[in-house]
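Hi everyone, sorry if this is the wrong subforum. Our group has a chain we'd like a structural model of before ordering constructs, and none of us has done structure prediction before. Sequence below.
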Amino acid sequence: PFLSVAAEKELYLLATNFLLYVAMVIIATIVASIYFPGSLQRSTSSPQRARSYNYRMAEQAQEEEEYYGSDAEDEDDDDLEDDDEVLDSDDEDESAKMIRPRGGGVKRKVSFFLEEFDQEKLSRGQVLRRLLLCSLMLNITFVMWGVLQERMLTRRYPRFTGEYFHYSYALVFTNRFWTLVMSTMLLFYMKPRGSRTTVIYEYSFPSISNMLSSWCQYEALRYVSFPATTLFKSFKLAPVMLMGKILGNKSYPQYDYLVAVLIGVGITMFMTSTDDLRFGYDVYGDEVSGAWTGVMLLFLFLFFDSFTSQFQSRMFQRHRDLSMVELLFATSAFSTVLSFVTLVHTKELGPAWNFVMEHSEIHLHFFLFSICSTIGQLFIFYTIKNFGAVVFTLIMTTRVLLSIALSCIMYGHKVSATGFFGLMLVMAAVLYRIRKKAQGEQLIKWQGMDDNAKAHELVQEWHEHVDM
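Answer:
Right subforum, don't worry. Here is the predicted structure as tokens:
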């Protein structure tokens, strides 16, 4: 047959869940049109205001070149006046800044590590210490997150003699639930102005694709090793460019195409030469008929993930009053509900719950898995806002190497000389792309960055380097 039994099973489950999500969104839209018609109406009474948050620094907005050239024309109308009046003086200390809210009165600006700090008023040492903190926390949280992911999905409970945890949607639900909790806290703390131009069902499209991409990468671990899966995600650049062409008619520099080809070649060398990736065997050491099932799932992961990032970027371009925090909250709310319904629909909720209750060892793993996911996303938000996409990419590239190395040490994955050369080829291509992106600009700037210029860059880098 054209597809193996394992591949047919995975595709059938993927298709049925996708149709379930579409049906649920249609039903929810119909119910909203009857009971909450206002949620389906776009505001046309006043022009769109630029994105604004109470936590923004009141500095003169710096004109930044857009990460992708075709979006530059959308930045011209970002200079609309804010409703919040910020009172500041040249001789005033940063901690004494006062903000006058729309409703009158004066409140003191609260210090919080997620805020965009004023780099002009900090010494070089202070900025570098914050950068070091970002590097350490991003690497610690995501390396640990990867180790826990491999432990939970590819090892027995208890070790050596127990059974495997096969319930991928339980991990999807856990991640989305804690993301919802985090984004809810950010909404209450940052209080962004709600978008009046978005329609509620628009949030469901990136939510569905993001959830399916997560499920595909978790399921892929049943057929390929974690190092191969981690390195394969470096190939995100190719489908992201394809989706950018389809959804946004974007143009990309020539070096991006070269980098995509080199990454593809390096990944192929790594996956075909690594000892425990002989086609015909899964990570459990059992013989399987679906030799390419894991690769198929990884390609589907890249497809859905690239759609998510490009669709969210397009939402930012079309809805100038949409904030990153609001988008994160809405998509995680949709994902939490849909993933829970999926657990019920596939009859995995009961078995997954019983598995967790019967094996005390997995309790700590689930807790740390969720904590690393939540803290890691907070530091993604903080790092890109304050240091930009290039610095963030460098940090996450280091994380890929550390994750692969630690996985090989802890779980005994062997990498041959050819596989190591493929790994180095991928890393060289990624670093070359970083160097080209950073030409003519200072990586660490001693001045603040404007939210408006970085919002859709945040979405692009979030999805290109994060695989939750």
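For your construct planning: Residues 361-411 form the longest helix (51 residues). The two ends are 33 Å apart (CA to CA).
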